[in-house]
Structure formats: C-alpha cells, structure tokens
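thread: overnight batch results

M.L. [08:02]
morning all. the overnight job finished for the chain we discussed friday. pasting input first so we're all looking at the same thing
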Amino acid sequence: MSTHNQPPEPAGETDRRISFLSVMLSVFAGFFGVQSDANRRRDFASGKFWHFFTGGLVFVAIFLLSIWGLVHYLLATTPTGQ
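M.L. [08:03]
and the structure it wrote out:
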C-alpha cells in the first residue's frame, strides 16, 4: 500500500526518453511560438538540453540558408528593367 496519493503512471510514461521526431517538432513549434504547455512540460521533464540546443541550431541554420537561397534566386530571376 502506497502512502502517496499519486495515481500510477500511464503506460508509456515509464520510458522517459523522447524521440528524435518529438525533439524536432518541439523545436519547430517553439521557434514559431506555438508550443503547447503539455509538450513543454514533457520536454523539460524527459528531454535533454543538448538535444534541443543542437536541434535549435540545426533549425536556425536551415532557416537562414533557406532565406539566403530564396533571396539569391529572386535576385537572379528578377529583370533589371533595362
């Protein structure tokens, strides 16, 4: 008999690791400011800082390279008006 009044953990909650896809989705949602409170709590409880840090750096690098590529493409395809 337990002296604590906590409900048992739901199935699947005993494994505290989160998947690579979950980390990337959390980074993506956090980048745009639409992360849910439940996911934020899950990330802080079971995620590792370096996974999110690395995912954030990768996402920012991809984002910046995409913007850079788009600007160069638009400059190369835009008529100069001469």
